[in-house]
Structures are given as structure tokens and as C-alpha cells.
Amino acid sequence: MNMDSNFTCINGEYIPFNQSTVPVSDLVVQRGYGIFDFFLVKDRIPTFISYHMDRFIHSAELLSLDLSYTKEELSDMIINLIRKNDIQNSSVKIILTGGISPDDFTLAKAKSSLIIINKPFEIKWPEAWKNGAILITSRYQREIPEAKTINYIRSVRLSGQLAESNAAEVLFVDRNWVRECSRSNVFFVKDNCVFTPKSKMLKGVTRKRILELKGYNIQEKDFKLSNLLAADEVFITSTTKGVLPVVKIDSQMIANGQIGPVSKAIQTEIRM
User: Could you list the residue range(s) of the whole structural domain that residue 137 is in?
Assistant: First the structure.
């Protein structure tokens, strides 16, 4: 589908995608200041929209952005946009900009733009991921990590290295503490216990779903890279990747380089 024929929603108004604009004085342009959220639409039904709206609202609060819509109003706008575009399988990205600033720096209340983009999306895993994925590490800690901001400078800068390594993700490590991947959360399994970092990272929706599973010993606990490398199993989670087992980090194999039974079981339960 040609995106020019799609509608985009800006501040509650539905307009053709090729006519959507943001003022150049907006802090999203001038300083890269803004938030977003992203989720999938399957058979024209948005997945886990309530969880994503809760996180979006929380991100706005953390960045002191004025969001003049309720959760219900946001959900209604999204559902209306999905209906107007009528794409069976798609994605939704909802963005709240920093707003028009009088001096290209100061945060001005009530001048943010709300942008909702809906476009076709089909999940396609590279062949290299089918028997378990590779991660590459980077020493990095995101600023305001609990918020889903538009600042992806480190991730985009490393995208070429990802492609060269056939890697699925960049794993962020802060003074040897494992935090998250550039677009995913990370888990490891040791002696049938499942661990995921507790602090200084974005709490993903798939991560939340896993924490709600019954029948597993799952603990939120900060841990170091050495714990991850010595794990029985490692997997990452995200909206687009679901549960993706990891068999190699940098040059080191995880366990025997095979997908483990706990990862397989959780992968089965958490369907994208």
C-alpha cells in the first residue's frame, strides 16, 4: 500500500499522510525532545492497547509533557484511524512532541503535537534468527530509561554493526550491569529460575505479559553481564520480536548454543 493514501491523525484531525507536518520550532525538531509508543494491529484489532496507553501516559509525565487527552480519547482516536485506513495487519506509532518553544529550548506547556501513524506491517524474521539470535554489547545507559523517548541515537548509530554481525539487538550494559536492549527487554534462565532486570530500563509490554505468567519462577532482579554469559538460557522480548531466544553474545556462546526448554515454553505462551 502506498503510504500517501493512508490517513494520519494529528491533534485529533485525520489528514493524508503526505500532508502531515510538524512546526520546525517544535522541540521534537530543535532538540529531539518527545516520546512515542508502538504496537501491532492484527486483523484490524490493536494488540494490548491499554498497556501501551498506560506506558505512553507515564512517559509523558516523566518528560513533563502536556497530554491533553484521556486514555479513552487516545484509544478512540487510534481505533478510528485503524478503521479509516482499513489495513488488515499494521502498526501504530503514537508520538507526543516537545511542543513549540519560544526560544527553541524552553519547554512550553500545552503546545505539544499528538501524532498517530498507522501503516502496513508484517513480521519477518531474518534467516539468521531462526535458530536463536546474536546480541552485541554496548556500554551505555539511556537517559530517563523508564520513558519511551524518541532518542535512539546510540541504536541507530550501531545499526550498521548489527547488520554486519547478523545480530538481532544491541545489549546495553552500564558498568557491567545489564539494563536492556536497544528495542527489547532481556531475560535469562538459571536452574529453572527466570530473571529480568528490575531498574534503569523501559518496562516493555511483552515483559509485563511474561511477569504475569503462572507456573514459572520469575524474578525482577538487577544482574551483571557475567550472570548473563553464565546462564542456561537467554531470551529477549519486544512487541515485534515476541520472545526471541539468544544463543550468542558478542563472541561467546550461551550454554550449548541451542534454544533451551524454558525459552521455548514461554515463547509458546506469549504469541505475538
Answer: 127-269
Question: At 257, which amino acid appears?
Answer: G
106 and 131: one domain?
Answer: no
If 0-12 CB within 10 Å is exposed, 13-18 middle and 19+ buried, where does residue 87 land? middle
- The span from the CA of 145 to the CA of 172, in Å, is 11
Q: How far apart are CA 206 and CA 247, in angstroms?
A: 20
CB 181 within 8 A of CB 171: yes
How many structural domains compose the chain? 2
Q: What is the pLDDT of residues 167-210, one digit of tens each?
A: 999 999 999 999 999 999 999 999 999 999 999 999 999 999 99
Give the CATH number, domain containing residue 20. 3.30.470.10
Instruction: Identify the CATH number of the domain in which residue 186 sits.
Output: 3.20.10.10
Q: Which of 120, 142, 159 delimits the end of a domain?
A: 120
- On whether the pTM is more than 0.70, the answer is yes
Dist CA 164 CA 16 (whole Å): 37
